[in-house]
């Protein structure tokens, strides 16, 4: 090997792997690695977990010391040495010793650049005047932990909802701090599509992290002990700890000043051997432009695993071993409290900007056999090319084993795999770890069925278009599932009864089938097709995907930790969010019930509960979160001490005080109402009263209709059908909208919900705020529909 001197600028993943691989290939070459920081090889992906005290010892983050590098690999590592310029003609670099500012010059035969990426610090007014932190290296997280140690930190704010932002938010929350994330996009975790990110929104909210989406930080001040974060909406956040995690940019000023070719986004341009535009200079890691294997175009992905592989390729080519870097998929994974989120390839948002014909499918299988204890679902989205079936990307969020499925599909994609390959993969199986039909196989089955023509699909966002075109919604779930939530106007025939009731399904219209996750819908699809129906489609991912897409993070807003949770934990000897099986404490299982079922179940449970005792309600209806918060606020006799999520189940723990009285009594009609006064609006009503669906219909068609009708349901319910005159204000958001309703303080306000409970509680809130004339629709939308009145 003729090359004698190799200088590597930057350590960590790219630089350190280059040096180690090069030494394994050549004992003769002189290797010098220069790192401007105090650590040359550290676990930068573990930094958030050191802040969260999951990794307890700082030394655990330092993977290799300069001394160990020298002993094991015999190369010269110099920390706190910064390369400040490159002379390409003379093949030298100028180095500054940061401890004393002395400078010296080093010659090289080959130069390797591994400068990495640096945090983006946006020019927001006031930022430089308040204490704030970034997360790039060990000194950064040491500053954060010392700040926490020497200051009273109860609240933290993270600007940015990318991977680092989410990870540091989780770890700050695990330390017991209140945490809020400010994200300018409509979602966190941009590698995921919105409907998939919704699952992460839910998980963050139920673990106490408040999200400000579609929101920007526009200013910072520190008038006292707390920092004030000013938001574009006009709101503000008082915080003790401010973390900036808005993203990273390539640290390529050295390469730019040396005249190396850079991309439009500032990344160093390299070829497949990791050569830059200078044949004597290589570059690896987060600062370089890479080749996207899916799009066949330049890309940039700052991931440690990719940087390690690039270092190996660079070292091989320096040593004369011809090796190529074929490109990247961008395979990634992160932990979100009790869930795992992983993805590889392209998301749909990116594919829409390209001239690629694609299809997408969803699935929600269990991570292992359902009969084996502890099974949880994995929500998957697969994108593939039409008509070839080539896999373009996949996203998954769920329990243990989620990342395994993404790794399998990433491997298939590396070799140009299609959905047909996923169908045929032989994967390991035992009940604790998987299913005989693995989730990866299931995606292959679904995709192959589409390409072979054995199933046509429709998507969660097609609902309005289908309705406009006169399509028929056929819900093949059970009646109990259907009653919880369904598409407006849908025909409900269980897949088990389909053949018996086939004559109820019109043959002259297109049929759009749905079940909960897609499998029963597929069975129904095949039945209809074979019985002569010509135009049939199945909802991929089922109603569950639709529900995820329609969720608002506000529905899962975190609540403050009540000190009585500790009392409960001490009594049980385990965390207070899991009290199932405790005989001395009452548990109400309301899973499967839609609102107001969980609330009514809780009220019944409270009646028999001794005073000064705890009760836990377990529910699967997302709207129960806002309902119970409002109910507790209206009732001085109970306190909500914990509202969390475990798997798919909401766990609401309440404490019954001595003064408990049910806050939802039947509204007493006034004497004037009982006399059936012929006027549309009976006189002498109390401030809060009921109105029947029939009377409301009469008012709406009179010369004096009500000025405003407030629908207090959630958006997902609203989308299934509502009065065209109504305004949607979910119960959980009503208090925040009071100022906008000021003009109606002395006018009639009608409130409506699904069955009456939430609209009455909304009336109580309005009454408390000084509104003078509120009427709650008796029986809610159920009564309106049963009366045969139209809705949209």
Question: How would you explain this protein's 3D organization?
Answer:
28% of the residues lie in helices and 24% in strands. The chain is an alpha/beta fold and 792 residues long. The chain is globular and about 95 Å long.
Radius of gyration over all CA atoms, rounded: 31 Å
Helix/strand structural class? alpha/beta
Helicity, as a percent range: 25-40%
The helix count comes to 24
Q: How would you write the strand order of the largest sheet?
A: 5-2-1-9-19
Q: How would you sum up the global shape?
A: globular
Number of strands: 40
| Largest sheet report | 5 strands, parallel
Task: Estimate the strand proportion.
Answer: 15-25%
Reconstruct the topology from this structure:
Elements: E1 5-9, H1 12-25, E2 30-35, E3 41-42, H2 47-51, E4 62-64, H3 66-73, E5 76-79, E6 81-87, E7 92-97, E8 103-107, E9 110-113, E10 117-119, H4 138-150, E11 155-159, H5 163-174, E12 178-182, H6 194-206, E13 209-212, E14 217-221, E15 227-231, E16 236-239, E17 241-244, E18 248-250, H7 253-257, E19 281-283, E20 290-292, E21 297-299, H8 304-318, E22 332-336, E23 339-345, H9 348-351, E24 358-363, E25 378-385, E26 391-398, H10 402-414, H11 419-424, H12 439-452, E27 457-458, H13 463-468, E28 472-475, H14 479-484, E29 491-492, E30 511-514, H15 519-530, E31 536-539, H16 542-550, H17 564-572, E32 586-590, H18 597-607, E33 613-619, H19 624-634, E34 638-646, E35 649-656, H20 671-674, E36 688-691, H21 693-700, E37 708-711, H22 715-718, E38 726-728, E39 749-752, H23 757-768, E40 774-777, H24 780-786
Parallel strand pairs: 1-2, 1-9, 2-5, 9-19, 11-12, 11-17, 12-13, 27-31, 28-29, 28-30, 30-31, 32-33, 36-40, 37-38, 37-39, 39-40
Antiparallel strand pairs: 3-4, 6-7, 7-8, 10-18, 14-15, 15-16, 20-21, 22-23, 23-26, 24-25, 25-26, 33-35, 34-35
């Amino acid at each position: 090997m003729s090359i004698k001197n190799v200088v590597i600028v930057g350590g960590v993943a790219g630089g350190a792997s280059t040096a180690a691989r090069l030494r394994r290939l050549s004992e003769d070459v002189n290797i010098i690695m220069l790192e401007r920081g105090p650590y040359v090889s550290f676990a930068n992906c573990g930094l958030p977990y050191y802040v969260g005290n999951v990794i307890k010892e700082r030394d655990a983050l330092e993977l290799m010391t300069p001394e160990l590098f020298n002993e094991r690999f015999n190369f010269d590592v110099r920390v706190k040495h910064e390369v400040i310029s490159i002379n390409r003609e003379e093949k030298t670099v100028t180095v500054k010793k940061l401890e004393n500012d002395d400078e010296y010059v080093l010659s090289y035969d080959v130069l390797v650049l591994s400068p990495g990426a640096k945090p983006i610090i946006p020019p927001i007014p006031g930022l430089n005047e308040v204490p704030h932190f970034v997360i790039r290296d060990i000194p950064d997280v040491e500053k954060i932990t010392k700040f926490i140690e020497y200051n009273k930190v109860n609240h933290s704010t993270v600007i940015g909802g990318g991977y680092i932002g989410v990870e540091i938010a989780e770890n700050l929350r695990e330390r017991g701090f209140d945490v809020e994330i400010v994200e300018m996009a409509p979602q966190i975790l941009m590698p995921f599509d919105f409907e998939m990110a919704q699952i992460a929104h839910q998980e963050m909210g139920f673990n106490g992290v408040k999200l400000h989406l579609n929101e920007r930080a526009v200013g910072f001040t520190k008038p006292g002990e707390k920092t004030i974060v000013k938001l574009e909406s006009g709101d503000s956040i008082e915080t003790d700890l401010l973390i900036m995690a808005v993203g990273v940019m390539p640290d390529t000023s050295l390469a730019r000043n040396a005249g190396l070719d850079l991309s439009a986004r500032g990344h160093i341009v390299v070829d497949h051997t990791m050569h830059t535009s200078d044949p004597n200079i290589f570059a690896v890691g987060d600062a370089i432009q890479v080749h996207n294997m899916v799009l066949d175009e330049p890309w940039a992905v700052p991931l440690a695993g990719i940087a390690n592989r690039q270092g190996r390729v660079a070292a091989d080519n320096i040593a004369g071993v011809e090796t190529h870097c074929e490109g990247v998929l961008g395979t990634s994974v992160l932990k979100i409290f009790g869930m795992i989120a992983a993805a590889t390839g392209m998301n749909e948002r990116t594919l829409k900007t390209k001239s690629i014909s694609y299809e997408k499918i969803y699935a929600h299988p269990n991570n292992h056999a359902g009969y084996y204890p502890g099974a949880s679902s994995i929500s998957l989205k697969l994108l593939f090319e039409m008509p070839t079936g080539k896999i373009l990307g996949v996203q998954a969020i769920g329990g243990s084993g989620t990342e395994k499925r993404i790794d399998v599909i990433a491997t298939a994609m590396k070799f140009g795999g299609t959905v047909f390959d996923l169908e045929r993969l032989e994967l390991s199986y035992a009940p604790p770890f998987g299913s005989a039909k693995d989730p990866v196989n299931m995606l292959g089955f679904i995709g192959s069925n589409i390409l072979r023509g054995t199933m046509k699909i429709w998507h969660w966002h097609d609902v309005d278009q289908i309705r406009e075109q006169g399509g028929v919604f056929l819900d093949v779930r059970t009646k109990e599932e259907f009653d919880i939530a369904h598409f407006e106007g849908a025909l409900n025939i269980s897949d088990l009864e389909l053949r018996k009731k086939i004559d109820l399904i019109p043959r002259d219209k297109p049929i759009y089938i749905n079940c909960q996750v897609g499998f029963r819908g597929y069975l129904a699809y095949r039945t209809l097709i074979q019985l002569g129906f010509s135009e049939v489609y199945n909802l991929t991912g089922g109603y569950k995907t639709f529900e995820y897409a329609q969720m608002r993070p506000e529905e899962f807003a975190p609540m403050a930790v009540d000190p009585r949770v500790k009392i409960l934990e001490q009594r049980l000897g385990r965390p207070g969010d899991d009290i199932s099986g405790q005989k001395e404490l009452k548990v109400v299982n309301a899973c499967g019930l839609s609102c107001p079922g969980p609330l009514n179940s809780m009220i019944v449970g409270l009646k028999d509960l001794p005073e000064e005792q705890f009760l836990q309600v377990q529910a699967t209806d997302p709207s129960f979160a806002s309902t119970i918060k409002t109910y507790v606020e209206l009732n001085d006799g109970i306190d909500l001490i914990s509202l969390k999520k475990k798997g798919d189940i909401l766990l609401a723990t309440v404490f019954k005080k001595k003064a408990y009285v049910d806050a939802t009594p039947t509204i007493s009609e006034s004497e004037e109402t009982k006399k059936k006064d012929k006027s549309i609006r009976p006189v002498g009503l109390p401030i809060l009263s009921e109105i029947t669906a029939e009377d409301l219909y009469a008012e709406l068609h009179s010369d004096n209709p009500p000025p405003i009708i407030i629908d207090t349901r959630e958006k997902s319910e609203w989308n299934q059908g509502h009065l065209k005159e109504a305004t949607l204000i979910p119960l959980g958001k009503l208090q925040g909208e009071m100022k906008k309703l000021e003009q109606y303080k002395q006018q009639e306000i009608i409130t409506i919900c699904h069955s009456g409970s939430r609209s009455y509680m909304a009336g109580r809130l309005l009454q408390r705020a000084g509104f003078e004339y509120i009427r709650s629709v008796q029986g809610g939308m159920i009564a309106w529909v049963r009366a045969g009145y139209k809705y949209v």
